[in-house]
Amino acid sequence: MKSIKVFAPATVANVTCGFDILGFAVHEPGDEVLLKLRDSPGVNIKEIKGDGGLLPKEVEKNTVSVAIQEFINHLNIKQGVDIYLHKKMPLGSGLGSSAASAVAGVYGLNILLDSPLEVSDLLTFAMQGEAMACGEAHADNVAPALLGGFVLIRSYNPLDVIKIDAPKDLYATIIHPHIEIATKDARSILKKSLLLKDAVQQWGNVAGLITGLIKEDYSLIGRSMEDVIIEPVRSMLIPGFDQVKAAALQAGALGCGISGSGPSIFSLSRSANQVAEVMSKCFQSINISSDRFISKVNQQGPLIIS
Ligand code: HSE
């Protein structure tokens, strides 16, 4: 029986100013998916580990099986697949958990089928998993999880995704406080219209951040990591957000913001340890326990484990 086990990484979406259009991959945490091909048709989720029993095993309700089913439908084949999902990252954390599972699934299946599609063509199937999980097919987690690196989604229709090289000395520090925020909820509280002056400031920052990454201009990266549209609304869901951000900046971070839809908070810096320490301490001081992850930008994306 043909089988493959794939790891796909966590991702930081939005990267402050780039709501739904910017994201990057990190080395850890991430999810593992084992796929086994079957002769009889149909997609089955055989086992889910590490989710505390929270994720649905119904094929149409889990991001990995939805993405795989979309891929199989596109190829118009009768291939049967058994899925064993090992969640190795927290759910509802703002680290792209649903995206990592979907990406590991479609990436692995493509290899098992002798790569009928280019890796970048798998994006659209992984996005269907996001559409099912959060109501909208945003790509700022799935694209970096699949392609690695920093990714810009220039357009959704038509889909136009651009990978941007990250500076070598850039570290991401992610602090995951032990509270849960569902992406669907964090999207539902956003305002549906915005002021032109805020839009001007935001797109100036997006352009500045991309330019800073390409030119390896750390000061410009830091100046551009400002979100005047989403963060003021969502930060209210994260106790201690303002203190954690202030402490990270004080400790030398270039910039700091909400990872995806939260509650994780990330910062970018040229050396990470000091920043991680102060960010964790802030949560400790308000009696919220947290995990921390420190990683350079993961340029590779998914990894074949076996
Ligand atoms: N761009 C998405 C959002 C990412 O902020 O809702 C979700 O992780």
Describe the fold and architecture.
A hairpin with an 8-residue loop joins strand 1 (3-13) and strand 2 (22-38). Strands 1, 2, 3, 4, 5, 6 and 11 form a 7-stranded mixed sheet that branches. Strands 8-9-7-10 form a 4-stranded antiparallel sheet. The two termini are 14 Å apart. The mean pLDDT is 96. The chain is built from 10 helices and 11 strands. It has 2 domains: 3-164 and 298-304, Ribosomal Protein S5, domain 2, CATH 3.30.230.10; 171-296, GHMP kinase, C-terminal domain (Alpha-Beta Plaits), CATH 3.30.70. It has helices spanning 63-75, 97-112, 123-134, 142-147, 183-188, 196-215, 218-224, 231-234, 241-250, 273-285; strands spanning 3-13, 22-38, 42-49, 80-86, 150-156, 159-164, 171-177, 255-258, 265-269, 290-296, 303-304. The chain is α+β, with helices and mostly antiparallel strands and 306 residues long. The chain binds L-homoserine.
